[in-house]
Amino acid sequence: MAQAPQIDPVLENILEQARWAPSGDNTQPWRFEVVAPRHVVVHGFDTRSHCVYDLDGHPSQLSLGALLESMALAASSHGLRMEARRRLSMPDTLPTFDVRLVNSPGMPPDPLAAFLPQRSVQRRRLSTRSLRASEKAALAASLPSGYGVQWFEGRRARLACARLMFDNAKLRLTMPEAHKVHRDVIEWGARYSTDRIPEQALGVDAMTARLMRWVMHSWRRVDFFNTWLAGTVAPRLQMDLLPGLYCAAHFALLADASPRHIDDYVAAGRAMQRFWLTATQLGLQLQPELTPLIFARYVRERRAFSRTDGLQELAQALAVRCQAVLGPAALDRAVFLGRIGAGPAASARSLRRPLQDLLVAPTAGQ
Question: Mapping DSSP to helix (H, G, I), strand (E, B) and coil, where does residue 1 land?
Fold first, then answer.
C-alpha cells in the first residue's frame, strides 16, 4: 500500500466517517484515491471470484452503495453535497466512482450522520416486543422513492423466517465452497476485528465457538462432523433459529422494479444504509439475512454453485420456501432481508481498517 498523501481535514473527516459503512464479512471493498480537496475516486472491487455469496458482485455493490450514502451523510455535516458518477469504462468487477463535494450553503446536516460509527450487526437474541407504529413509520419514511418495506411480524411469521434461515444455514455449512469463505473471515478469539468478523460477534456460546474453530480447520473435519455427528445443528440453532424467533420482526426491502444492473444495486445499498441508520437512531438492532435471496437467484437463473451432490436440490426446495414466505411478486424485487428488534448493541463487533490503509496513490494523468 502506498504511503498516504496529506488530506484536507474536511475530506479526511468525511472519509473517516464513511469507512464505517457495512460490507459482507467486513471485506470493505473500497479504496480511496484523493485527487483534490473536494474530489476523491472510490475504487471498488468485489469478491465474486472466491466468495460463493457474492453472486455477480451484487452484495459488494450494495456495500458500495452504503459507502456512497455514508459519504453523502458525512458531507452534509460540513455543508457539502456529494455528487457521485460511476466510470462506465471500468468493468463491473471494479466499480469506480468519481465523488465530488460541492458547497451547498444553507444545507442542514442530516441527523443520520451522527450514527455512522454506531451502526453495527447484532447477531444475538433481541426483544420480541412488537415494533411501535412510530418506529415502523420512521423506518419506512427513511427509504427513498422507489423502495418500500415488507414486514413479517407475529410468532408464526417469525417462525417461518427463522426456519427458512435455519435450513439455509444447513446449505451454507455443508458446502465446501462456503467453508473456504467461513475459514478466512472469522478472527478466532477476538472481540473486535479490523478486517474480519470477530469470534465473539458470531452469536454462539464459548463451547460451540471452540468446537467450530477446531472443526473448521479443515474440510475433512467439517464433512466428518456434518455426516456423523450432526455438526451443523448447534451453530444453526444459535446463529439462525433462536435469533430468528427472538426479535421483533423480519423484513424485506423491496425495490419498485427488479434490480438488474450494477447501478440498481448501488442505489439499493444507499436505501439500505438509510434504513439501517434509522434503526440505530431509534435504538433498534438489526442483522442482515441475505442468504435466501442469494441462493434463490442461483436457482432462478439455473446456475450451479457447488459440485456437492444434493445441494442444488436443497437450494431448489429452499427457493420454493423463500418464495412462499415473501410472496412471488416480492421475491424478484427484494434487495435486502433482515431481522430487527429492540435490545442492547453488540458487545463485540467488526471494526474497520484505518483510513491510512484505505488510501491509494493518485493515478498518473488524473
Answer: coil
